[in-house]
Predict the structure of histidine kinase.
Amino acid sequence: MKKDLEQRMLYSDFKTALDLINKNRGRYTDSEKADLDVMKTKILTEFGLYDEAFKLSQNLISNPKLTAEQKLKIHVERALIFEINDDAKSCLQELEKAANIFLAQPELKLKNYTNFLIRKSSYYRVNGFSKKAYDLANEAKEYAESVNDQVNMPVVELILGLGNRKTNLQKELQHYQRALYLYKNLNHNEAIISMYHNLSFFYFSEKDYRMSNTYIDSALAMASKSNVLNYKADIFQMKSDIMEKQNKSDSALYYYKTASEIYKEFNNEQRDLKVKELGLQYNFEKERSEKKQLQKNISNTRRFTISLLILLFGLLFFLWMQNKYRKKIENQRKKITQKNEALQKNLEEKQFLVQELNHRVKNNLAVILSLIGFQKDQADNEDYKKRFDELYQRIKTITIAHELYSYNVNHNDDSYIEIKRYTRKIFETHFSSGNRNFSYDIDMNDIQLKVDKTLPLGLIINELITNSIKHAKPESDLLSLFFKLKKTEKGEIVMDYNDNGTEFSFDIKNDSLGIFIIEGMVKQLKGSYTREKANYKIVFPND
């Protein structure tokens, strides 16, 4: 059965694999059950059931009878769960634990090392260390070739393509096409569909909608062979986006509705699986409780027998009392230890749930931004489009602050955000919008502000940049923006902003909202500001 499950998981038939595990788990030994649970953790992660996957991994990690290979696989899978939920520290800790197992038992490398390097490369890429991630991806490729690891080789080509994104488009495309070729050799339909989607997105990003449409049509042609609903929904959504760019509104709407229906079906599937998992967990807890009660009854029977024997042997009564007292203390100590372990486990679960909440809030903000972009594309009035752009930038400014702020169970109002990184992301958002070409210069030290200071400051910066892009008239062709933020000895923050415009044109009527936002945010900062044409100086306390 294990080989059958591994084959089904290899070809992404996760639903059937999960049904087989749940129906047959009770027939196997503890060691075999651990193997099934390791595979089940991976399946739950693939379905997006991260809470259930995390809880199952917690039970596995606490199992002292787990083999080294089982521990290795579960540490790598937990690293993925933490990566998905933006817990970089925990992700790295799991990878380090897996690396230690390889050091102790290098014979485990043959079947597992390529996947470990892939996960490690993904960690560094997600956390901004692109050079390190790319080096690890190349190391994974070399190792996979040395051991003829055909299963993981397409994945390696995929992450090598991601490593060349926006830096070498030709190499990026070559790696994607190589991954597609390797998946075709494996007859992996789900992965082939996914690669067609990736290639379509590549050309879509380059605005080559003809080639993008060709690849997405190839994916649609295979959609009937797909059992993974979110893969299938993604390709219909991609087709809708292409049709929209080609001004084929009816087709775009058709594919969008189809994608929405499949996403809904996928969400229903997730819900049903979650309900089943809750039922299985309940039965498991009930069975464990009954076993504990049986053990307790056996223990009580034994104590009663001992008590009768002790009554018969009066000379041993005193020794028996001492032994009972010692056992009582030991039991209390064990209970305290168990309670502490339960509290720790509960804390970790709450931390995971809070991070999941934060992840979903970020997703909701991304949906809002997408809706604004979609509404903008449908607007015919240029003035409305500009207003949608301004609304997009304002919400994007809030989104960036949300992404940089780490929520946790110990959350309090004294949490800080690194302002230099936040400011640079706001400038980069305007720069990449393409509304107007400009250069910018940011001068500040490593300053961290509380979250209730950061967001008003970010909104002020956004309005100032927007104002410069709309109104500045420099002598040269290139608009230049200058931003400076310093901390004074008095404990104040001083912000200076200006552009190289030679004239100051400001329509009070049209830009009243921008002025209102600036003045409102300065008031929220409990600060003051002065303006001389396009030169702004804002001072506020750092309390």
